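Human: Not sure, check this?
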Amino acid sequence: MSRTCTAFLFVILAGPAGWASGPAVKMPSVPVATYSIVAFDPATGELGVAVQSHWFSVGSVVPWAEAGVGAVATQSFVEPSYGPLGLTMMKNGKTASEALAGLLASDSNREVRQVAMIDAKGNPASHTGSKCIAAAGSKIGLHYSVQANLMSNATIWGAMSAAYEEAENKKLDLAERMMLALEAAENAGGDIRGRQSAAILVVSGVPTGRSWNDRLIDLRVEDSPAPLPEMRRILGLARAYNRMNRGDELAAEKKWSEAMAEYAEAARLAPSESELPFWEAVTLFSAGKEEEALEIFRRVFRTHPFWADLVPRLPAAGLLPEDPAKIEKILAVRPKPSATHPPARP
């Protein structure tokens, strides 16, 4: 077993008392050194966690959140059970402070833990054990907590706090505010070992009973030499696809002006994504807005001709009319092949 795998096994076995059985084991030799933020948006009720670390797949270990309940970041010599157990305690009425205190009281290894929680009322709590590797610390603000360990210097969490509060004053959404906090940490020096992975998780303020719908943003960069630039890129894509989905919902309600505004914003956020305008055109054509759809099809086929090959397959799936004349009308806007650029074979 590798040194890293052994460390992770030890860290799970050495959890809070009462939640694991067996003899005591030695502590892991490698911590999940991390900077993170947990936050609550009072305007929307959204809860979120964002994290970056020099550790593979930090998003599978550190961030936890549940709509209408709370959010948790568990790091340093990480004990993953602080996530689900903390959420369960908050769901049962405990404040973030009460939940965190209860878990720490049963954990004989609390001094190597770094944990932050925030409940659905926006009350934050944090703990940095005395044996977390320096530089380590945290800062609690109104409706958020930032924390870091094994940092290059002791200014990291202060820089995160300042960036988050400045972004909050600009009325930016929760994901963007947390993203800016991560970038501020990196700009201030970040993890002394470098960087590797990142994650952002945002859940809705009110649970729908369908947990998959409650996760508004759920993004992870598992391994990258530049995880934060990659996270910012895919966060932009997530926003674009969310606007596209909202456009589809409005189109289903025949609220066409609002739907077109959402589609336009999706295109602005992801101008190089041919997927978004293609399906927009399909939706519009099926709704009888053929001229608007044909102009979009024309633009998509001009830069990405392969989309035209998909069109004849869509009537059988109920996505375009079962009318050969209409399908031919769409295909007619394809660019004409030339001698130097013959059509690609299927």
Q: What stands out?
A: The chain has two domains: 3-225, 241-331. The first helix runs from residue 3 to 13. DSSP finds twelve helices and ten strands in the chain. The first strand starts at residue 34 and ends at 40.
